[in-house]
């Protein structure tokens, strides 16, 4: 079995202090396979699956199993670029109103033209301050018959693995095979733990200031 944390940032994201060597050691220690989803950047590592948290004019979503960085700001053009390279569309924290770029603010979650492209919905994000956004995401995924994933949204080493799911071994370069094992994953086996609010409300802001000085 593989433990996958589907939403992890490196220090490429300006609000994260997950420097690569430290992140690699933490993932190894916790036996976590991370999907790397930096903000508007694709960071390739030798210990995880490449992705990107893409900010568009209609909200943000993650492209995972990417081979190239996505730079388009039109949401449908960005989706097309992900699909062209065989990647998957993963919706992170779609109902968290606290986040400036959450999809729930832009109406695309009610747009069937957008939803038909979605592969996976994040039904638990460890950095949601409240539980309600996660509950709404779960209900949404169920109502749309979409696959479910979870992610720690880790910005710091101690957050890695706060959310993960167990799946059978699969070819890490094959997104279609990942969808098959995800479909069979036991939702009762999802591990979900909320990050401390200080990580979101204090530490992330401090990290931005510190990195400006580096």
TrEMBL record:
<dbReference type="Pfam" id="PF13263">
    <property type="entry name" value="PHP_C"/>
</dbReference>
<dbReference type="GO" id="GO:0004534">
    <property type="term" value="F:5'-3' RNA exonuclease activity"/>
</dbReference>
<dbReference type="InterPro" id="IPR052018">
    <property type="entry name" value="PHP_domain"/>
</dbReference>
<dbReference type="InterPro" id="IPR016195">
    <property type="entry name" value="Pol/histidinol_Pase-like"/>
</dbReference>
<protein>
    <recommendedName>
        <fullName>Polymerase/histidinol phosphatase N-terminal domain-containing protein</fullName>
    </recommendedName>
</protein>
<dbReference type="GO" id="GO:0035312">
    <property type="term" value="F:5'-3' DNA exonuclease activity"/>
</dbReference>
């Amino acid at each position: 079995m593989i433990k996958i944390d589907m939403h992890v940032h490196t220090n490429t994201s300006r609000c994260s202090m997950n420097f690569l060597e430290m992140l690699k050691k933490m993932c190894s220690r916790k036996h976590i396979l991370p999907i790397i989803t930096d903000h508007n950047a694709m960071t390739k590592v030798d210990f995880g699956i490449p992705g990107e948290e893409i900010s568009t004019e209609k909200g943000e979503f993650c492209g995972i199993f990417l081979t190239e960085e996505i730079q388009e700001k039109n949401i449908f053009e960005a989706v097309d670029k992900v699909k062209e390279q065989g990647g998957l569309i993963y919706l992170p924290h779609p109902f968290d109103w606290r986040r400036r770029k959450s999809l729930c603010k832009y109406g695309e979650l009610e747009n069937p033209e957008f939803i038909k492209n979605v592969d996976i919905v994040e039904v638990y994000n460890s950095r949601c301050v409240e539980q309600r956004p996660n509950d709404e995401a779960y209900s949404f995924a169920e109502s749309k018959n979409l696959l479910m994933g979870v992610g720690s949204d880790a910005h710091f080493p101690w957050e890695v693995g706060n959310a993960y799911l167990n799946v059978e071994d699969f070819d890490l370069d094959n997104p279609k095979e990942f969808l098959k094992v995800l479909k069979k994953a036991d939702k009762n086996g999802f591990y979900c733990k909320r990050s401390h609010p200080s990580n979101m409300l204090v530490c992330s802001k401090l990290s931005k200031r510190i990195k400006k000085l580096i």
